[in-house]
């Protein structure tokens, strides 16, 4: 079990998340895909920390911060989606173009 | 032995992730996300990051999935039927595949060859110590970010109609 295993796993997770962001139209599903991307980054951070810097665990500290920001992001984004749904009766991101022009 | 466990956990993680981006039912997507995140928690255990595995189960399994399920319940379910796939999904698939291939190529070119078996876990004591000494300011800022974001979420979710009330 080498570092490469974890790197390929995190790359696959990241690519699946990117596909979800690009291919979905529902705002909630895009949010779920963003969570996948953040987790892929975390796997990579922890794997690099485990293999290259095994005594200090620096990567784990940064992964904790990533999880914190992800939690804040989910709470705020879901509140925005809820409010958009109340105002526009839709979660389709193609229809939410208030700021486009 | 650890390799078998790794492949099992990787399969769970990737199958869950595929479920998130492929299924046409939003509730199934949220549950598939939970499966994928628990697979990631197992990967953390395999990398001797016990604290992160605990945090992953607590925050993602306990909090985030529940919040997402609540949001799905509060926005109407039948609304989602017509709005699943973007017409640009083949382009998205192409871009994601290209990204994966580029990342794997980069990792293949330059990846340190080391084995994880000969390592020990980073103890909780060390992690907590560095979180509260070396990273204390970043830690406080992170907690402030969380506080501000969640207060903002409450204000946004309340809406304008309740603003006049005391």
**Helix content class of chain A:** over 70%
Quick one: CATH class of the largest domain in chain B? Mainly Alpha
Strand content of chain B: under 5%
Q: Treating each run of at least 4 consecutive H or I residues as one helix, how many helices of chain B?
A: 6
Q: Which spans of chain B of ≥5 residues are poorly predicted at pLDDT below 50?
A: none
Largest interface: A-B, 74 and 86 residues
β-strand amount of chain A: under 5%
CATH architecture of the largest domain in chain B: Up-down Bundle
Spans of chain A of at least 5 consecutive residues whose pLDDT stays below 50 are: none
Descriptive labels:
heterodimer; A: 101 residues; Helix Hairpins; 3 helices; 0% strand; elongated; B: 166 residues; mainly alpha; Four Helix Bundle (Hemerythrin (Met), subunit A); 6 helices
Could you outline the blueprint of secondary structure elements for this entry?
The complex is a heterodimer of chains A (101) and B (166).
Chain A: H1 3-23, H2 27-52, H3 58-88
Helix pairs in contact in A: 1-2, 2-3
Chain B: H1 2-22, H2 26-46, H3 50-74, H4 89-109, H5 124-132, H6 136-158
Helix pairs in contact in B: 1-2, 2-3
Description:
With 101 residues, chain A is an all-alpha fold. Chain A has one domain: Orthogonal Bundle (Helix Hairpins), CATH 1.10.287. Helix content of chain A is 77%, strand content 0%. Chain A is built from 3 helices and no strands. Chain A has helices at 3-23, 27-52, 58-88. The mean pLDDT of chain A is 87. Chain B is mainly α. Chain B folds into 2 domains: 1-80, NADH-ubiquinone/plastoquinone oxidoreductase chain 6, subunit NuoJ (Four Helix Bundle (Hemerythrin (Met), subunit A)); 122-166. The longest helix of chain B has 25 residues, at 50-74. The model of chain B has no long low-confidence stretch (mean pLDDT 84). The chains are: A mainly alpha (101), B mainly alpha (166). At the A-B interface, helix 1, helix 2 and helix 3 of A face helix 1, helix 2, helix 3, helix 4 and helix 5 of B.
């Amino acid at each position: 079990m080498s570092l490469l295993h974890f790197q390929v796993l995190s790359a696959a997770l990241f690519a699946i998340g990117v596909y979800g962001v690009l291919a979905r139209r529902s705002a909630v599903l895009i949010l779920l895909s963003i969570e996948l991307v953040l987790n892929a980054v975390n796997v990579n951070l922890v794997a690099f920390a485990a293999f290259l810097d095994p005594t200090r665990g620096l990567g784990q500290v940064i992964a904790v911060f990533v999880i914190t920001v992800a939690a804040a992001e989910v709470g705020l984004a879901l509140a925005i989606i809820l409010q958009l749904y109340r105002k526009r009766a839709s979660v389709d991101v193609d229809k939410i173009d208030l700021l486009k022009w | 032995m650890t390799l078998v466990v790794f492949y099992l956990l990787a399969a769970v993680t990737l199958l869950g992730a595929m479920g998130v981006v492929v299924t046409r039912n939003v509730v199934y997507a949220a549950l598939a996300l939970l499966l994928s995140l628990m697979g990631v928690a197992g990967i953390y255990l395999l990398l001797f990051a016990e604290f992160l595995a605990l945090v992953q189960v607590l925050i993602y399994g306990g909090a985030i999935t529940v919040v997402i399920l609540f949001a799905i319940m509060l926005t109407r379910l039948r609304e989602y039927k017509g709005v699943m796939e973007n017409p640009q999904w083949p382009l998205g698939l192409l871009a994601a595949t290209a990204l994966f291939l580029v990342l794997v190529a980069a990792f293949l070119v330059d990846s340190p060859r080391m084995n994880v078996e000969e390592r020990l876990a980073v103890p909780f004591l060390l992690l907590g110590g560095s979180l509260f000494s070396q990273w204390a300011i970043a830690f406080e800022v992170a907690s402030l970010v969380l506080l501000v974001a969640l207060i903002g979420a409450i204000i946004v979710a309340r809406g304008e109609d309740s603003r006049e009330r005391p």
